[in-house]
Amino acid sequence: MLNLLRELGNALPIPFIVYDRKGEIVYVNRAFRELSEEISAEEIVGKSILDFVHPEDGKRAKDAMKRRLAGERVEPYSVRVKDKYGRYRIYQVVGGVGQFMGEKFGIITLSDVTKFEEQKVMLLILTRALRHDVLNALTAAESYLEFSKELCGDCENYNILQKLEMSIERAVKIIKNLRDFEEAVVEGKLEKIDVRDVVEDVAKNFDIPVVVECDCEVVADRGLRTIFENLFQNAIQHGGTDRIEVRMKRVGDFCEIRVVDYGRGIPEEIKDKIFDEGFAYGKAASTGQGLYLVKKLVERYGGEIWVENNQPNGSVFVLRLRSWSL
Amino acid sequence: MVVEDDAAVLETVQLMLGDRYDIIPATNGEEAVRKYKMFKPEVVLMDVMMPVMDGVEATKEIKKIDPQAKIIGLTAYARKKGKELLEAGALEVIEKPFTRKQLIEVIEKYLK
Fold first, then answer.
1. A105 vs A99: CA distance, rounded Å
2. Using alpha carbons only, what angle is made at residue B42 by residues B41 and B43, rounded to the nearest 5 degrees?
3. What is the SS3 assignment for A219?
4. Which residues of B touch A138 (CB under 8 A)?
5. Residue B82 with chain A: CB contacts under 8 Å
6. Bridge partner residues of A220 (DSSP)
7. Domains of chain B, residue spans
8. CA 20 to 30 Å from B74, out of A198, A253, A259, B26?
9. For residue A284, what pLDDT band results from cuts at 50, 70 and 90?
10. Neighboring chain A residues of B6 at a CB cutoff of 8 Å
11. Helix (H) or strand (E) holding A149
């Protein structure tokens, strides 16, 4: 049986490692031996996984292994592993726990994400440079506009200046959405977030009452703030609601969050399009990025979002996010 | 003093504030440190991303010369870079784009 498992492990093209309670390696498959330093299957047994990872990543890897064996949820994380040429490559680590002959052991698989990570860094540098330059240009444009409005006073072209102002505001909003998106994607690490705390904090920036019922701890990051900012903004700007309620309850392994407004509601014919990139509707149409960003963030958290009608009027945005403590 | 490497932003800030305050312009962190020693301005408006020496380094250097220096950050990166500026000693950070009213309010707050 053990030989069969070893053969199967060696046939698998994905590198994986099995380790015991002490963090010592019990088994690695051929794919791992091929990616790492020259070392035989016998030599590798009993070594620590930390012998193979970059010293700066050791603590993170050790903590993750320990937590996994203790039964805690461990999100995928990245470590640098030295290849046979002595260069560090970046791997995404995903793991699980098993039991064999009364002994608990951990198993981790490694996927090479070096190229992806390098591209991500390049993209980040480019978008940051672009954002910086565009925001500087908009800062200057907004200032000149302010002067023009002062000079114009009640002149007949004032409405043109107002339209210009709206265009600048829209451009600023696009750039800020891009920033939120970049932060959400790049930062990567998901953590325990208290939804009530986030909702109450976001609500301070809006002039209408926001009532929060119950609470939940979910797997997310600070992008959750962006989600509520966008949902509240939409309910006010598009729906014209005068109040919002946020209700939460546990549904299995998920926390269901219902963002309820009492505005005009969303027309049936656009309901399946509102989360599409660039979709804008009606007189109050904005950048078309807000709900798209919301959906992308929710997906990144491993959750779902959809919209329902509220009774007698308004909309209910339903978010299902993974509960932190399963 | 207004420290900003983008010529258009520097010009507009001078236009916004020039009728109320005497402004010393600087186009990078190093120039800002040098001019701070010479002129001891009452308030410094400091951009973050600049060539030669960035706003975070310049803030640290100015705070070494004068721990009481009143520095206000101007940034397109309010969350991350803003935090670094505050840690370096800035009193607060204003996010770009800003308005004349915002600038005057914050300057007046620290001139008192």
1. 6
2. 95
3. strand
4. 96-97
5. none
6. A191
7. 2-111
8. A198
9. low
10. 133, 136, 139-140
11. helix A114-152
